[in-house]
Amino acid sequence: ASCTAGKIVLDIACGTGYGSRFLANHGARLVYGIDISSAAIEFARLRYGGHGVCFLVGDGTRIPLSARSVDVIASFETIEHIRDYETFIDEMARVLKLDGVLVISTPNARRYQVRDTAKPPKNIYHVREFDLTEMCEMLNRRFEKVSVEGQRFVPKITLQPGFRKISRVLGFHQGIGRIGKLSTLYEPFYYIFWCSQLKLKNT
Fold it and tell me: What pLDDT sits at residue 124?
């Protein structure tokens, strides 16, 4: 939430609004929480509405905000649910200020369900999944600066007398070049892209 402190933030596909309220409570000046579901927005207004948050019913391909009106856009695991994903990115670029930052994440099609990316997603709620090259090409057409982080689960083994526990912790990779050189086995499960028209600060 540090990159949203004092900023006007768009939480696109906000769902029931928990994330929007979290951002508002941690320093954002104003958070627009937008979701296509009127039921989700009604719940969000009742549960998480109030000072610093404005919940709106809206379509990601027709965002109900003015051009160059927000400093930060948070779009987490949304683009894979949208059929007209090119227009979705265009709309986010439209409402983002020239010195603003888009943070967008999506599953890695090559790892998320371990399948041929040419086949339809197995997740019935996903319209289209993307690999690193596809996402970079789309984002680079709209933004001057694009950086990426990769997120995957790494096995962690805890040994105690008579007891062994295997859990999963989050591992991160940074940089398009570094991620692009990883073998399929070590590729991230999720990508997080940071996009701007100006030089990106360290995040």
Answer: 75
